[in-house]
Amino acid sequence: MTKTELLKKPLPDSPGVYFFLDKNQKILYIGKATSLRNRVRSYFASDLKEKRSELIEKMVTDAHSIDHTETESVLEALILETNLIRTHKPHYNTKSKDDKSYNHLIITNEEWPRVLVVRGRDVSEQFLKEEIKCEFGPFPSATLLRVALKIVRRLFRFYDTKEPVGAERTKMARGKIDFNRQIGLYPDPNQKEEYLRTIRHIKLLFEGKKQQIIKELEKTMMRAAKLQAFEDANKFKKQIFALKHIEDIALIKNDQQGLRVNDSFRVEAYDIAHMAGQDMVGVMVVVQNGESLKSEYRKFKIKTLKQANDPAALKEVLVRRFTHSEWTNPDLIVVDGNDIQRNAAKLILHERGITIPIVAVVKDERHKAAAVLATPEQLKKYRYDILLANAEAHRFAIGFYRNLARKRMRPE
Predict the structure, then answer these.
(1) Fewer CB within 10 Å of terminal CB in the chain, N or C?
(2) Under a CB-based contact definition with an 8 Å cutoff, are residues 310 and 360 in contact?
(3) 47-57 pLDDT, tens per residue?
(4) Do the beta carbons of residue 326 and residue 297 sit within 8 Å?
(5) In the 8-state DSSP scheme, what is residue 43?
(6) Domain with 7 in it
């Protein structure tokens, strides 16, 4: 199919998951949408490369057809997207993605199972295999996952305490649990059987089996009605209605704010640190989808300079960084400084034929961000990512410099 034919493909104005397929019907990319029609059309805009990335532009070029699956809510689209990506591992979803940096949903295998959000790389450190009842993810956006859990909590009460329930060491921790029970966030401690059923339903929900939950609840409601336990029957009736009409306006708003959640937007920030040219160092930090990827931070000892010259040091760092073709290229570069640093970075990239947008963060006398030299579109979509990356780069650079300085001054 041509791009024009792909663009004309009829799609519903409803939530769901879409698939870009190659000529052999192999899945290239999976995404979720509030409106399948509007989201898929956005891939054929003339400024796709600027708004999304060169990688996504190439994906659309490689695509020969589009398929989709409708869902009843954006929450279900988010869950389905995550499960399908984990199953199929499409090339353009997995390329440039560090699963270990993303968040996973863990249900613990305990007397009172907890529902927890855990960073992928921390799962094996915090839990033994037998301590996990089930695991879902990775979820690229921590924000979307937490919004989703707030929606789930309106359907099912669950524990998310740091320690296993009953293992609280302080009076304050126990008091927090009691308070959360009173306001309806945590379940009744005398209804363990019901809670285990709730945990099973949360598991089914994240497996994409909402209809199975509804059927089970309908049977439970009918049994309660036959026993004339009308209060219980009414409770189940309300729960069924809530599942059939999931209120996910928060997810819809988040989806409409931008497309970066699905497309793994990567920011690299650079900073230089030294004391009057001594122990001069440079660093690179990575922020992806609003979260720092500390496993991909890099340190550089400046080798070509003996005197303070931040733009020249930045050039050296960038030259060395872009000799590493095995490192994933960023979608945006952030430098600390003004147009001098920004132009120095542009020159290095231009000499290597690399086209990546560059922004600069200007600091005041207290080294706080005073201005961001970027386009209005970049600021609108990525201001948080830019400032986070810049702050992380400064912190990381200062820490690296101080460590070197301490080693130099340490007596033999």
Answers:
(1) C
(2) no
(3) 777 767 788 88
(4) no
(5) T
(6) 3-94
